[in-house]
Amino acid sequence: MRPTREISRSPEPSGIGAFLSTTLGRLLVSIFVPAITFLVLYQVFIFLRDTQIPQWITAIIAILWGVGGVLALFTLSNYLIEQLGPTWRRRLIPFVFVGPALAILTWYLVLPTIRSFIASLYDARGINFVGLDNYIYAFTSQEMLQSYRNNFLFWMIFGTGMSVGFGLLIAVLVDRTHPVFETVCKALIFMPMVISGVGASVIWKFIYEYRPTGSTQIGLLNGIITALGFESQGWLLMQPWNNLFLVIIMVWLQTGYSMVILSAAIKGIPSDLLEAGRIDGANEFQIFRSIILPSIQGTLITVTTTIILFTLKIFDIVQSMTGGNFGTQVIANVQFVQLFRQVNNGRAAAIAIILLLAVLPVMYYNLRQFNKQTEAFR
Amino acid sequence: MTSTTLAAPRQRRRFRIGHIMVYVVMILITVLWITPTIGLLVSSFRPADDVKTSGWWTVVTNPENARFTLNNYRIVLGIPLPDRPVTSGTRVGMEVALINTLTVALPATIIPILIAAFAAYGFAWIDFPGRRPLFILVVAMLVVPLQISLVPILRDYVALGLGGTYLGVWLAHTGFGLPLAVYLLYNYISTIPRDIFESAFLDGATHFTIFTRLILPLSMPALASFAIFQFLWTWNDLLVALVFLGAEPRVQVVTQRLLSLLGQFGQEWHLLTSGAFISMIVPLIVFFSLQRFFVRGLMAGSVKG
């Protein structure tokens, strides 16, 4: 990073230096420097968008351009503010720091809540005002009703319940084992967390693969079932239980998360509290119910909320496993279909607003917590 | 007295049996949890004919008949084989998708962190009117689902010519990752002791100098935690790529590629498994080498939209 003016002020400016420190010089610099920076960045953008050079070269230029561009813009805006008088400098410098973040946040999240609401009152192409038609669609159409059932019953209740339940069970059990054993178990159970929903779908589609009874099974689940003497099953076609088989994929991905967080909370319980319980003759189950559970209640709520928010927006597993067919439709997938295949912006926006309404309680809770914690932050 | 001496060994024995049970249950759960991944890994190294005609577990139950090959990976990565030249019909193209994913994920990680670190410093250490309401806005945005922005932002992208460009995807990932990034980095940067700033201010340093010279290096642990989180999120993302990057194979990322392989080569499990494993390698390396940072980031970042 180049030193700023305050630090590197040379005592005797001369030649070009003298010119640059005049007001006119500063003005010219303030106009030309950003103009040239923007021009260079824009030209590279156009070049990258239309270029035909080898792909890995494009990739490297794109990465350097993106990261360097952001750095250049920050350095530049700071440099320009430094040219101003002390009063304006003090007024504007906070916005060099928080401005870009707030601008992007406003463009990508704050304004879209309003713009989506407006779009939800218009037709597919956003031309004619249709009132609440899109909401009538969102609350009465067969695909949306099916989505509510799947999202709330299967994904939210079963999915969250199983992820948190398994996570808690494993966290409690693993706490009683040798530290090395614990580390290995945790790492292996946690590992699916870093696998994409699509990658996990390939893994599990292979497990659910169906071949008729009698032929060699290559899907693990039907392999086990037929070895036990049962008929092989088309797991992904069994309505409505196929939803549960999709939910299992998410449970496989998310249990590690709840396990790690809950395990940390359990380790945070003071050991003399547990000792006291044992001396008083409580058995392990009583200790779990009367000491461990109340102590980790807060963490349990946090983990549950996080996973509920995740299930609400579940998309990639459904999109890659069934595409929402065979009775497995979910809200986010309907929105995607409306946006791309039906090209119905009004409906897609109305569905987005419904998702937003669903997270409002959590937003309210977050804000209240924030207010409580930060009385000092004024 | 007698009763306690009698009870003690019995209780210890029961405890020991319970203890063994804990290990047995944990081993069962762990095996259950890694079996799907092992099935994928084993299948990805088996010849196409074997994958189609026998379960992958026969490698364990019937090891003398097991055959392994790297050909699946060669096909998926676009390396021509004698009996299978790379044509438009057989092209899998994971190698292109891998580079595309890197091109998306690296800037989509670094850019939001840079912007968020600046903002976190501004909120934590510069006093300005509107500081609190603006930060509350950031907290409010933490749980807003990104679905809310698809319709309006797509409209903007069409108008601005940003659709299908890397810049568009970087900005989208930046927008969706920023609330959490600002929030986490604020929590960290605001706890840096005030003394560190004061001597720097007395020496006449500006906020910009203090930030770039002092705060950024001091915040490295927090930056690293969030970086891993965001990198994995952008690497594994499907929705943002589908919406803002589009379907053109030249720009597709690995998750998109894998999704279209599921349609195109739905029964060619030797290609699907090796393709899926290739998409997982980078996240797995990041996970196993930087697990501690990753877990720390997760802990700090619970309840995100």
From TrEMBL, chain A:
Domain ABC transmembrane type-1 stretches: 149-366
Membrane topology type: Multi-pass membrane protein
Keywords: Cell membrane, Membrane, Transmembrane, Transmembrane helix, Transport
Gene Ontology, cellular component aspect: plasma membrane
Localization per record: Cell membrane
Entry-linked Pfam families: BPD_transp_1 (PF00528)
GO biological process, one term: transmembrane transport
InterPro entries reported in the protein's UniProt record: ABC_transporter_permease, MetI-like, MetI-like_sf
Family matches, as SUPFAM superfamilies: MetI-like
Membrane-crossing residue ranges in chain numbering: 27-48, 60-80, 92-111, 152-174, 186-207, 219-238, 244-266, 287-312, 348-367
Family: Belongs to the binding-protein-dependent transport system permease family.
Protein name per the record: ABC transporter
Taxonomic source organism: Chloroflexus islandicus
UniProtKB/TrEMBL annotation, chain B:
Keyword Endoplasmic reticulum listed: no
GO BP term, pick one: transmembrane transport
Protein's UniProt name: Sugar ABC transporter permease
Record-level GO cellular component terms: plasma membrane
ABC transmembrane type-1 domain segment(s): 98-290
Alphabetically ordered keywords of this record: Cell membrane, Membrane, Transmembrane, Transmembrane helix, Transport
InterPro entries: MetI-like (IPR000515), MetI-like_sf (IPR035906)
Residues passing through the membrane, by range: 20-42, 104-126, 133-154, 166-189, 210-233, 269-290
Membrane-topology descriptor: Multi-pass membrane protein
UniProt-listed Pfam families: BPD_transp_1
Localization, UniProt: Cell membrane
Protein family according to the UniProt entry: Belongs to the binding-protein-dependent transport system permease family.
Domain of life: Bacteria
Organism: Chloroflexus islandicus
UniProt keyword annotation of Nucleotide-binding present: no
